[in-house]
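assembly run, all chains below
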Amino acid sequence: MSVKPAARLRRKDLVGIDPLSPDEIQLILDTADQMRDIAARPIKKVPALRGKTVVNLFMEASTRTRFSFEVAEKRLSADSLSFSAAASSVSKGETLVDTALNLEAMQPDFIVIRHFHAGAPHQLARILKSSVINAGDGAHEHPTQALLDALTMRLHRGTLEGQVVAIVGDLQHSRVVRSNVLLLSRMGATVRVAAPPSLIPLEMEKLGCEVHRRIEDAIAGADVVMMLRIQLERQGRMNFPTVREYYDFFALTPERLKLAKRDCLVMHPGPMNRGVEIDSRVADGPQSVILEQVTNGVAVRMAVLYLLAGGHGEPTAD
Amino acid sequence: MSRLLIKHGRVVDPTQRMDEGLWVLIVDGKVARIAERIEDRDAEVLDATGLVVAPGFVDVHTHLREPGFEYKETVATGSAAAAAGGFTAICCMPNTQPVNDNAAVTEFIRGRAAAAGLARVYPIGAVSKGLQGEELAEMGEMARAGAVAFSDDGKPVHNAYLMRRALEYAQLFGVPVVDHCEEPSLAAKGVMHEGAVATRLGLRGIPAAAEEVMVARDVVLAQLTGGRLHVAHLSTQGGLDRVREGKAKGVAVTCEVTPHHLALTDQAVADSEYDTDTKMNPPLRSADHVAALLQGVQDGVVDCLATDHAPHHADEKVLEFDLAPFGIVGLETAVPVTYDLLVRRHKLPLRLFIALWSSNPARAFGLPGGSLKVGSPADITLLDLDARLTVNPDRFLSLSRNTPFAGQRLKGWPAATIVGGKAVWRRERR
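ok done. output:
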């Protein structure tokens, strides 16, 4: 698939999947495809964002996503700096808006933000001139995760259209599921979600998915099964009884995986709780593409940065 | 003897089933005469051509923040905002610092209000000491000092035993107990209405059931005790149904609905992209609840409108949605928001609209005013139903600007506010 030369992403920010059209999603995935090639070269770097500055503002702990953005920024030759909440003025009582305005005064081109509270990237996007990229906001969205998931599926299946994707786990607290449901349903896939009823947010079906209460119903005949982390740190003690019982009723085990298509992909956004939501035999098994997801994350983030900077066509031609 | 003659107005008084072109003569702060034409050469004249002359509007639910939070609002600025919003009288909730849970604070607030000399200010005392929900505050002392009702507003009276005793004890003074009905364990740490919009936005929801459960409990306790219950800022269909059932059984229950719960839905949180001026408690509800509230206004189950005026400083509202405080200001937008919505768009009779803002709240709280009958205090709201203006928070007299209605063009605004026969506010003609 090649990018039409005129195709550009005409927006300042990427705050979520929700505002994106199918064409825009397609453009990002196609561009990410090309970015994958760069990582296969002996010199994994292009000058596309030379002279651009990226601030990675991580107000909530993250290893994978932050490193992924940093690698993407370096491969595009951007100057990047990262800081986490503990090291910043936040601990001195500065508001998010003041922190962001101070950073913007140093004239960065991008602010990549991960935040504990839903909507924080939107609030910044409204007031900042820099491009704001949402790297995960509370239980709201994680757009680059959904894009890398879609890229991974597309690489294996050729298309997203008509694919049956089951997403199982803590739907209440997951930003990954929201972004994935919005993206996949918009691209013509069928999305089924499943969780104990106590972890299903109200009116979830309105996001564009089928809602199930048994993992078996969701994964039967599926092309893709995506397991979500049980966010132990976010659970009260009343959402489900024990981790042991959760495994019993909701974990992806080799036996349950047999209900899906024979070549069903197994995905997980990480970090995994082995033996809680996913059995190691499945996580490390032949159908697992969990580490490929991580690889594709770099390509997707390169694509997003490149396109938001106004890039179009071949990123390597500069 | 001070005399004021209001000429050429359209007098609408629900307590006298009156709606006609009449002149009103005020002598020494009281309504002295209403007639087609009144000759009085000594009286000061107020020309009310094109205006509606109504009993003074009463807002039974405001937060004036003084003592303790004078950077958000004071009794003086709050009563100025009230006058500029067409209100001749307001009740103020006790969640100040210190809490209004004793006669000294009640007297302090009344003193500040008297000094300001604008709208009448009626303090509401705390049900429990320090709003802690553990032991009854000195309700009798406060009632003697001028408290007109009791409430732990901001919080529900969570302990059912305490609520029972409050409903019983308040009967000594013939005043209502006002409850902020919300079961805290169900509301959990919610920040908006639980439903499709909260699910999409990834914000923690406050279920409608949190309100309904506690309204149901309170109606049962009001029935048990014979006490007077007033449900603050009712926002759900289920809560309204429980009030309706209580009334049908003869329980002494009244309720209020705010302008924002009628005019906005939870979609406003999404449309504004997490603007914290759409965050209040109870939260903006979904369209089905709003439709039920409108029905309740039309069929009379809703006794009155009230603003829940909750000023907050811009520095507090600039935070992340989860972290910003609940509440919006309402005094200076309530009349146009509700007139435009209820009378203009939903064809509510003007007389009922005026009753919802004047005679009904006055009756629910046992306040003087709310009527233009001869001998009543001359508290009068003049309305310009043709005025079409844009909400501009920069012109608010309130110290705070936290409103979701900024920029809205609305029809039907207050034109002047008369308290005790004295014009305390008039809209400048532009």
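Residues 125 and 139 of chain B are 7 Å apart (CA to CA).

DSSP finds 15 helices and 18 strands in chain B.

not gonna interpret more than that til we talk
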